[in-house]
Amino acid sequence: MTVAGLTRLSPVRIRAPRDLAPLIDHTLLREDAGPEDLARACAEARAHGFATVCVRERHVAEAARLLEGSGVLPIAVVDFPRGEGETPARVSEARRVVALGAREVDVVLRLAPLRARDHRTVLLDLEAVVKAVTGVPVKVILETAALSRDEKAAASALCAAAGAAFVKTSTGYGPGGATVEDVALLRELVGDRLGVKASGGIRTAAQARALVEAGASRIGASASVAIVTAGDF
Questions:
Q1: Could you tell me if residue 83 is left (phi over 0), alpha (psi between -120 and 50 degrees) or otherwise beta?
Q2: What does the domain layout of the chain look like in residue ranges?
Q3: Which residues are catalytic?
Q4: Which homologous superfamily is 18-228 in?
Q5: What are the start-end ranges of the E strands in the chain?
Q6: What is the pTM of this model?
Q7: How far is the first Cα of the chain from the last one, in angstroms, to the nearest whole number?
Q8: Distance CA 189, CA 197 (A)
Q9: What is the pLDDT of residues 76-117, one digit of tens each?
């Protein structure tokens, strides 16, 4: 498990929306997000006890400063949102965000070689990223809405083989977001070896609870405050 929450299936019992808070990666990935947005997101995360605040590279150092001592971790995306960078660039970015204070890394899977069934290239790339940030959990964003079932299965196996900590559904910038069906499938594919992060289009407490019940061990959302302060499911 990680400091911010469980990598594997969570034993947390979700009785009320606020119980979801320790499983949430509070997300601020808008390209136009500025210092005030970041300060607000970090304050919200501290107030509600979210697992992490997920940001782009340019915000990592300040997020780390704002979250210091809170128990909420700063985390960062890499090669986001398209996942089209070459391995050396992805490795360099992963190292930079960790040096700036990121405590977890969410990297986008390279879809082109996966679709071409060039599994060796995908594996070596993910292994390089994981090795570059040894000791820091790596979540791999699969963009499940763009993949066939066989591609999801192959991607999940490659993530496990590469030493990733999580598989993650979506960037939020692709053709679709997290679904109960995809989360359940990913959980079936990885068993208890990896965490499953549901992300993309999650706006209500009912959605988040359904995804946790389907097997998600982490929820990525920008609507986190609305989720945990909902009156009920």
A1: left
A2: 18-228
A3: 106, 168, 197
A4: Aldolase class I (3.20.20.70)
A5: 24-28, 52-55, 73-78, 105-108, 138-141, 166-168, 195-199, 218-221
A6: 0.95
A7: 27
A8: 13
A9: 999 999 999 999 999 999 999 999 999 999 999 999 999 999
